[in-house]
Amino acid sequence: MDGHQSQKSRTDFELNPDFLSSMPSEIITNILVKLPFKEAVRTSILSSKWKYSWASIPNLAFKRYMTESEIIRAVDNALLVHQGPILKFELDCCQHVGFKLLHNLSLCGCQLLGITIEKIVSGCPLLEGLKVFDFVEHGCLHGCLVIRLQGFKLLHNLSLCGCQLLGITIEKIVSGCPLLEGLKVFDFVEHGCLVIRAPKLIRLHLEGVFTNLLLETPKLISLRIFLFELPHSDQDFGLANDGCKSKFLSTISALPHIEELKIGALFCEYLASGSIPKKLPVTFHHLKKILVFLDGTSKEVDAVDAALCIFRNAPNLKKLCLTVPSLLIWEEQRITSIPFLKQLEVVKVLGFEDVVSMLAFAKFILSTAPQLQKLIIDKDYINELDDGMGFLMKLASLSRLSSKAVIVFF
């Protein structure tokens, strides 16, 4: 019986001349990752399915049997056509490596053996985009990256996450990138004042810890800032490098062309330190979208005031996304005359502290926004209410200034 099955298997194999092409992709990948990279590329001649299978293997290893010119050409070509994540990049064949044709480099959750990122990037004269996330460099702990680079003259986009900067600050890195248009820096700690001087920067995303922030980015149109913790003392909360007492005047008010703003509650609280001007020296005529997280606790009344200051100076705001704080600021006279209400079209509620505050906010928005089209509310919060149906009935009974206004649940 066993002999008959064995004979049948051999017959089936002989009747299928393209047996290699019928192999599952997972098996092909498992085979390729066990081969030296040069041999993995050579498998492209086996069949049509194998032709580009090597381009998606997660481990790239370039060994000593290749000459320096061969390694440069091989790495250039491999990175240009590679698809998917690179989990391991091993290079131990030469001292000086350059990827002369590379325009974009992404190292996410990657492990480098035999070479440093400094050596890689310094050999990429045409590099325009660089992402370094959860990076592992030989000899460094996970998430710890040592950067001593002086700048990238052609770089347009830079993303750094979980990187330890030794001997250099974010300010120095950015100042060495004169063409930088997009900057993302996550999980960082900057002692003292974080200074971003980038005349061409249009997108900035910061998530980390800093004591003070000074922005000199006249062309910035998109800003996202989430502060992980506030300074621990009044001294730490001290003046920025320009000696300005108001955080608004050294950060938010320095953005005349801002179009999109996303900020967390702690950053709002940071902005409120010092003083909150009733009227900023600049009006955000281009600001169309704001997302702000307001926890609304008694300790964060100033954070709410900081958010209101931004609203007051955004007369053309179209979309507002926020968490509704428990503070009933929507019933107070100080907010009823805010000019952003005239153009507001979409309001999205990301969460609310209690039913009373949510109803007060909904009543305020529906009764004072003449161009409102949608009030969007997270249905998960409603499902958790004891009297969800009663809440919905109260929402439906609220009067609406705009004839186009509808309440939508997502």
UniProtKB/TrEMBL annotation:
InterPro entries in UniProt: At1g61320/At1g61330-like (IPR053772), F-box-like_dom_sf (IPR036047), F-box_dom (IPR001810), FBD (IPR006566), LRR_dom_sf (IPR032675)
Database matches in Pfam families: F-box
Residues covered by the F-box domain: 17-65
SMART domains: FBD
Cited PANTHER family: F-BOX DOMAIN-CONTAINING PROTEIN, OS02G0105600 PROTEIN
Protein name (record): F-box domain-containing protein
Species of provenance: Rhynchospora tenuis
Lineage: Eukaryota, Viridiplantae, Streptophyta, Embryophyta, Tracheophyta
